[in-house]
Structure formats: structure tokens, C-alpha cells
Design a protein that fits this description.
Blueprint lengths: L6 H9 E6 L2 E6 L2 H30 L27 H31 L13 H8 L5 H10 L5 H12 L5 E3 L5 E5 L4 E5 L3 H6 L4 H8 L4 H15 L1 H8 L2 H17 L22 H11 L1 H10 L3 E4 H8 L11 H11 L7 E3 L3 E4 L3 H58 L4 H59 L9 H71 L30 H74 L11
Antiparallel strand pairs: 1-2, 3-4, 4-5, 6-8, 7-8
Helix pairs in contact: 3-4, 3-11, 5-6, 8-9, 14-15, 18-19
């Protein structure tokens, strides 16, 4: 059902095998184990093809990665060594891959580190660790390795699993990592993680893994598109000579070539290893088996790593880096090379000779020694920073004091200049002040004249605007009266009341009612505003009366002063000499100096009094005119509002009566014609 093929065809393919004998094709029935192997072979073909197809799809979607040439991070997940009761060809391949990866692990953590010590001339005692090169030679060495012998035996058509086991015992008995079983088809291999017993049953058949033509034809006849795609790819590979050779290779040969490609990629990277340790073999939480964990640590080589880390030099720095970072801590600065500088630093801090080693290119320190150098460096840097802090503070204070002195000197010069200017201004004659006062009086007089002109202009503009608005209101009223009269003259017979017309008329009636309410609200607002204007008018009248009384008092006092001046200027009968006299005028009146008994000054006073009286009369008239205009305009607006309200009310009543009469007529006509009462129960 999943493959989309016929069940009978599937049964035939799994239970028979076609053999080509010349031009004839013979169908051979398979035994039950052979049919089982055929079924497993079909499942492996589908699984492998599906896995490759998924990898291709993922690589296609991530194809943008080829355009980038930067660094990359890759993750390789490995299951680990496997050892079961029955270990077959699959366990052999997995353990072979883990053996090769374990050598890569040992090379980076053991071999390369010790080779670096030896190459840099360090006095180093070699740490012995388990090397798996002999086991790899047992598997990979040609022509008598396990892989070579398996391929050789797979090529013989009459070879069996028993002949393969005997061949291994004959050729590999000298290797210490190999041990053949006396009875049965098994053999033992001493891997890095431990000894594993393998059963050779099925080794040859699984290594050959023949691709049957019947299976390819079955996949091509399926309805599933993926299976058709897999079968077409298999046919294309069989037709191409370069790909057909790779297809004819054994499984172990393909596995070996893929493993070597992986190792080449790993050699080009900087590896970081993560070891996963199982606390127990039963997969239970909170259970810790010491022997099981210790065995895993030994198999993974973790104990050897700990021994090398403890006996080795954890911190490594080149002589150039050490001199650049800690060279300033030396008491005597000499032009030395980096190697001599590193040696001098170690001697100055009295580090024990067993805690460091000086190599040709690097200096090697044990754990904790670099901390002493860092503490000393931090202490010296803190002292340097404190000295710099005090020096910067001293410079800043000195700069501040200099700026303060300069500011005080500049301020003293400015104050002196201002004082000198004020003194010169005080020494100038009084004529200058009199001229300034005259100019100010002239400016004030000019400003008063201009302000008066602006006020008169604004008053004229406001009066003209009110007149224009009044005329426009009259025109609109006349037009509305004409329209109403025209509507009244039309005969009632021309109006044919329709349902939508009735609804429209009702809405218009409501709008007129709301308009009347708004007008009434506006009328009340105008009345309140009229009251406010009347109160303001009363205040203005009282103020004008008080101003008239004060001006009358001033005029009477000035007249009295004039009469006194005239009496003084007339020749006195009792006086014998016409001396110059000087009299003080009554208090509260302006004084005037009279010289030589001449009448010119008295005439000037008369003229001034007359001018002031004229100006006062004009101001009083203007105030009275403004108040009268405001009162008249308020009264006119009030009268217009009342007239318009009464006019609207009368128009509404007339229209309402007319509308009722027309509505009765239409109802009567409709009843005569036999229509229902569609106008509703609303009464007017």
C-alpha cells in the first residue's frame, strides 16, 4: 500500500530469483532465509535512497553556503563502540569508524602535544598512553588486513562464511589484536574500548549487497513518485561506466573510502571533543554505577588526558607576547631579545624552575603560575593609574586657577571702563538733558496724535460694517417674503401629496421647530448681552459726570489765577515806583513767571486755556457719540431679533394651518378613491 505496487508482483520478486543462462531466463525459487535476505535488501535500497534524497534536498536548500568563504562550525555525532551478544557486519563497521576517530582524538590530545614539547626543546617525560595503531593496521593493512581479506573472499562465488573465518585465522593469527575462535565462525578483535566477539555469519552476503534487477523493475512499476525517481537513478548509474564501477564495489570498500574523506575534513579543522558518560547501564535516573563509569572513562581515554594535563604545562605564550604584556615589570630596561626578556621576567619573580620551561619559541607555565604575573601586573597598573590621576588633577587645578586669575583681571578692566564712562556722562552740561527731554516730549505728542487717528479710523470702519450688515438683512427678508407670497398664490390643486412628500414635510416641520428654539435661545442671549451693555453705559455716564466736574474745577481755578494775574499787572495807586513783582498763585494751579509787567504772558495763558477747553469738549463729544452709537446698534439688533422671531412664528403658524387644510383635502380625495389611511395615526 505504501509503495503503490501490486501485492502479487511483490510476492514473486521476494520469493524467486531470475538467472540468465545464455538467451534463456530461468526463474529459481528462493528458500525462506534467501527470501528474507531479499526482503531486507529491498528495505535497505529504499532506506538508503531516501536518506540520500533527503541529504540532497537539504544541501540544495542550503546552497547559499557555497557563496560564503568565511569560517564554519560543523558537528559530528558519533554513537560510540558497540559490543552485543551477537555482533555482525554492522557492528564491525561502526567499531572500525570509532577506532579511526579515536586515533584522531589521541593524535590531537596526546601525540601532537608531546610532539610540540619535544620540538620546542622542553625537558619532558613522556606519558605512556594506549595507542590503537596496531588495531587499525589489523583492519586496514594490505594485502592481509580484515578489509582486504573480506573483499577477496566476497569475490569468490563458492566462498562461504566458514571459509572466510578460516582464512582470517590463517593470515591474522600473528597479530596481537586478533584472536580466532577454535569452534564456530567467530573471531575476536581487541579494540581501544575493549575486546569484541564477531560472528562471520552473513559477512559475505552483507558485504556483497547485490543490486537485483527485479527489485529495480519493481520500484519502477510502483505508483509512488519517489520510488520511480530512485529506480531511474539506479538505472542511470548502471549505464555510466564510471558509476558502474563504484556500484560494483563492496560495502566495506565504500564505507572505508567515505571514512577517509571524513577524516581528511577533520584534519583541516580545529576539533573540540565532548564525551558523554552513561551513569548506569539500565537507563534509570539517580543511579550511579562506579565500575560502569570508570570503564567508560578508561575506554574514552579521559584518564590519560587528565594525567597529561596535570603533568604538562597548561599555559603557553610566545616570547613576543610575554615580553609585550609583562616586559614593563622589569626593574632594569635593557634592549634584549624576547627570549632573554622572558627569562628575566621568570627570574625576577622567583618562579621555581619546575613550574615553567623556556622553549625555543614559547614559554610553558604550569597551572596557577600565570596568575602571579597577572596580579603583579594589575598592581603596577593600578599604581600607574593613580599617579596619572594625581598628575591630571594637578594640571586641571593649575589651569583652573590661571583661568580664574585671567577672568578677574578682565573683569577689573571692564569695571574700570564702565566707571570711567559713567563719570564722563555725569560731567556733561545740563543742556544735553534738556534737549533730550524736548525730543521725548515731541515723540510722545506725535504718538498721541497717531493713536487718535487710529481710533477714529476703527470707529468709522465699525459703523460702516454695521450699516452693511443691516442692509443685507433687509434684502434677505424681502426675498423671503416674495418667495412666501409666490408659494401662497399657487393653487392647492397643483399639489399632489405623496407618501415620501409627507415624510419630507414632517422632517422639515421638525427642522423649523428646532430653528425656532435656537432663535429663542439666541434672543435670550441677546437680552443678557443688552443688560450688560446697559450696565456699562451707566458706568460710562457716571465716569463722564465725574470727569466734567473735575474739568470744571480746573477751569474755575485757572480763571481765578488769571484774574489775580490781571490785578497784579494793573498799576497800583499807592505804589510810587513800578518795580518788578512776583506773586504765587493759589495752590493746586500751575505757576507762571511774569516779567516786566507785560501782557503777552497773560494772553498766552488765555490761549492755552481755550485750547484745553476745546480739546476737552471734543473728547467728551467723541465719548458720547461712541456710547450713543453702541446703544443704538444694540437696540437695533435687539429690535431686529425680536421682529425676526415674531415673523418666523407667524410664518410657521400660517404654514401649519395651510398644511393642515391641504392634508385634509388629500385625505378626503384618497378616501373617495378607496385608499387606506396610509398617513398613520399622527395628529397635528
Amino acid at each position: 500500500m505504501l509503495m503503490g505496487c501490486d501485492s502479487k508482483e511483490l510476492m514473486v520478486v521476494l520469493s524467486t530469483c531470475k538467472l540468465q543462462a545464455g538467451r534463456d531466463c530461468i526463474a529459481k525459487r528462493l528458500t525462506l532465509p534467501q527470501a528474507t535476505d531479499m526482503r531486507d535488501s529491498l528495505a535497505k535500497i529504499i532506506y538508503a535512497s531516501l536518506f540520500n534524497w533527503l541529504v540532497e534536498q537539504i544541501n540544495t536548500s542550503l546552497e547559499v553556503g557555497k557563496l560564503r568563504t568565511g569560517r564554519s562550525i560543523s558537528i559530528l555525532d558519533i554513537y560510540g563502540f558497540e559490543s552485543f551478544k551477537n555482533n555482525s557486519f554492522e557492528q564491525f563497521c561502526i567499531n572500525y569508524a570509532n577506532e579511526r576517530l579515536q586515533q584522531h582524538f589521541n593524535r590531537h590530545l596526546f601525540k601532537l602535544e608531546q610532539e610540540e614539547y619535544e620540538g620546542d626543546g622542553i625537558d619532558w617525560t613522556k606519558v605512556e598512553f594506549k595507542d590503537n595503531q596496531e588495531c587499525l593496521d589489523l583492519i586496514e593493512k594490505k594485502p592481509i588486513g580484515l578489509v582486504s581479506l573480506l573483499d577477496e573472499e566476497s569475490n569468490f562465488p563458492k566462498a562461504t562464511d566458514t571459509t572466510f573465518a578460516n582464512k582470517l585465522k590463517h593470515h591474522l593469527k600473528a597479530n596481537s589484536c586478533f584472536r580466532g575462535e577454535r569452534r564456530g565462525h567467530g573471531f575476536r578483535v581487541s579494540h581501544y574500548a575493549g575486546e569484541v566477539l564477531y560472528d562471520t555469519n552473513g559477512f559475505l552476503e552483507k558485504n556483497r549487497d547485490p543490486l537485483h534487477v527485479d527489485l529495480i523493475q519493481l520500484l519502477s512499476s510502483c505508483n509512488c513518485q519517489l520510488l520511480n525517481l530512485f529506480s531511474s537513478k539506479m538505472r542511470d548509474k548502471s549505464l555510466k561506466p564510471s558509476l558502474s564501477e563504484s556500484m560494483n564495489q563492496s560495502v566495506i570498500t565504500k564505507f572505508k573510502s567515505q571514512l577517509f574523506k571524513l577524516m581528511n575534513k577533520l584534519e583541516d579543522t580545529t576539533p573540540h571533543f565532548i564525551r558523554c558518560i552513561k551513569p548506569n547501564s539500565n537507563h534509570l535516573p539517580g543511579v550511579y554505577e562506579e565500575n560502569h563509569v570508570l570503564q567508560q572513562l578508561r575506554c574514552c581515554g579521559v584518564l590519560e588526558i587528565v594525567r597529561i594535563s596535570r603533568s604538562g604545562y597548561h599555559t603557553r605564550m610566545t616570547h613576543q607576547d610575554l615580553a609585550a604584556r609583562y616586559g614593563f615589570l622589569l626593574d632594569t630596561k635593557l634592549s634584549q631579545d624576547p627570549l632573554s626578556t622572558s627569562d628575566s621576567i621568570m627570574k625576577q619573580f622567583n618562579l621555581p624552575p619546575e613550574m615553567y620551561q623556556v622553549g625555543y619559541r614559547k614559554i610553558y607555565l604550569r597551572t596557577g603560575q600565570i596568575g602571579l604575573l597577572e596580579e603583579r601586573r594589575e598592581y603596577v597598573l593600578q599604581g600607574v593609574i593613580g599617579l596619572q590621576k594625581h598628575l591630571r588633577g594637578y594640571k586641571s587645578r593649575e589651569y583652573f586657577h590661571n583661568m580664574k586669575k585671567s577672568a578677574l583681571i578682565l573683569q577689573s578692566y571692564i569695571r574700570g571702563e564702565n566707571a570711567r564712562r559713567n563719570y564722563i556722562a555725569m560731567q556733561t552740561p545740563a543742556t544735553v538733558s534738556s534737549e533730550v527731554t524736548k525730543e521725548l516730549d515731541a515723540v510722545i505728542h506725535l504718538q498721541s496724535v497717531v493713536r487718535r487717528w487710529f481710533v477714529r479710523k476703527q470707529l468709522k470702519n465699525s459703523v460702516e460694517l454695521k450699516k452693511q450688515s443691516h442692509n443685507e438683512k433687509k434684502k434677505t427678508r424681502r426675498k423671503s417674503r416674495r418667495k412666501v407670497s409666490e408659494v401662497k398664490d399657487l393653487p392647492l390643486e397643483q399639489f399632489q401629496v405623496q407618501p415620501w412628500d409627507l415624510a419630507d414635510l414632517q422632517s422639515r416641520v421638525q427642522k423649523v421647530e428646532t430653528a425656532i428654539m435656537q432663535k429663542e435661545d439666541e434672543n435670550t442671549a441677546l437680552k443678557e448681552e443688552l443688560q450688560r451693555f446697559e450696565e456699562r453705559w451707566i458706568k460710562h455716564e457716571t465716569r463722564m459726570k465725574s470727569m466734567e466736574e473735575t474739568w470744571q474745577k480746573h477751569i474755575s481755578s485757572m480763571q481765578m489765577s488769571l484774574e489775580a494775574a490781571c490785578n497784579i499787572m494793573t498799576p497800583d495807586k499807592t505804589a510810587s515806583h513800578g518795580n518788578d513783582s512776583e506773586d504765587t498763585i493759589s495752590p493746586g494751579t500751575p505757576t507762571k513767571e511774569l516779567k516786566g509787567g507785560s501782557l503777552d504772558d497773560i494772553k498766552d495763558i488765555y490761549v492755552e486755556v481755550d485750547q484745553r477747553r476745546v480739546v476737552f469738549d471734543e473728547d467728551v463729544k467723541r465719548h458720547v457719540e461712541i456710547d450713543e452709537l453702541e446703544q443704538v446698534s444694540i437696540a437695533i439688533e435687539k429690535q431686529h431679533a425680536e421682529e425676526e422671531l415674531s415673523r418666523l412664528k407667524s410664518r410657521f403658524e400660517k404654514w401649519k394651518k395651510d398644511y393642515k387644510a391641504r392634508l385634509r383635502g388629500t385625505k378626503a380625495r384618497l378616501r373617495l378613491n378607496g385608499h387606506r389611511n396610509w398617513c398613520g395615526k399622527k395628529s397635528f
